[in-house]
Specification:
The chain is mainly α. It is about 65% helix and about 5% strand. It has twelve helices and two strands. The protein has a two-stranded parallel sheet. The protein is elongated, with a radius of gyration of 22 Å.
Length: about 270
């Protein structure tokens, strides 16, 4: 897309993997729809021999359905649906996270903007920040106020992995991220954002029950307030990193080095 449309603004929209998994899981548990858990398995199974996919599957210990003997697309889908129905929630999560991780980390660092749709739904500050950044990039005014999802409630139903299983899988995902992105992954915007979302998923495994209890008591604003604080912290960190990068470019430039004697003289004779 960037090669064919170099003048366009390229935006990556992603979602916290835990929230994305919960959405797919609820489709199966409450609506009998396995599509959003089965299709990631099908795509992974069809590409299981690719080195990057194989490495991810090994890190996360994903069990894939065998497609040998499936001669039609319908038969492949049925095999994946059967695999979902016969497996435990922890396997649902491993497959969902592997699919998310491979897709998210395929994005190049050269994208113009990354939008976290989950944070967009729960933080008014983040919505305003995204609108401002889009206006700078495109010259168009965007209103995200109707994206408010702070009234949504996460309900525990028992059909999800245990917190320890989630934490182990998320740790394996971070190891895969480091393995693929290299030692400097934290300095690259896309891998760093993916790691932050995985960390948030790990934190969510601990506090999900607290959120459920607070929502039952009517305290539905807790998540929104927390998201606002997270958004403020992200903005501050981003600005600090941009300032550090700008300073590093200045101090490493040739003109800065050439004018070093002049600055030294000025310091001696103010």
């Amino acid at each position: 897309m960037q090669h064919n449309f170099p003048e366009a603004v390229h935006i990556l929209i992603t979602r916290n993997p835990s929230a994305q998994f919960d959405s797919a899981r609820r489709q199966l548990v409450y609506h009998g729809n396995p599509y959003f858990l089965a299709m990631p398995l099908l795509i992974l199974a069809m590409n299981r021999d690719l080195p990057r996919v194989r490495a991810c599957l090994q890190h996360l210990r994903v069990t894939l359905p065998r497609l040998a003997g499936c001669h039609t697309w319908e038969m492949c889908v049925e095999a994946c649906v059967a695999s979902v129905r016969q497996s435990q929630p922890v396997q649902w999560y491993r497959g969902s996270l592997a699919f998310w991780l491979l897709g998210a980390t395929s994005a190049p660092d050269s994208i113009d903007l990354l939008i976290d749709s989950e944070l967009l739904a729960f933080s008014g500050l983040y919505r305003r920040q995204c609108a401002a950044e889009l206006e700078v990039l495109t010259g168009r005014v965007v209103d995200f106020d109707d994206a408010d999802g702070s009234r949504g409630v996460t309900v525990s139903d028992g059909f999800r992995p245990s917190p320890s299983e989630i934490l182990l899988t998320n740790r394996a995902a971070e190891e895969f991220l480091i393995d693929q992105a290299g030692s400097g992954w934290a300095d690259r915007p896309v891998p760093a954002s993916m790691s932050r979302m995985i960390t948030e998923a790990s934190l969510g495994a601990h506090d999900r029950e607290t959120i459920r209890q607070e929502s039952q008591c009517g305290h539905v604003t807790t998540r929104s307030a927390t998201a606002d604080l997270e958004a403020m912290l992200r903005v501050t960190i981003r600005r600090a990193m941009q300032a550090e990068q700008a300073l590093a470019r200045v101090t490493s430039s040739r003109s800065w080095k050439l004018t070093a004697p002049l600055r030294s003289l000025r310091a001696r004779f103010p």
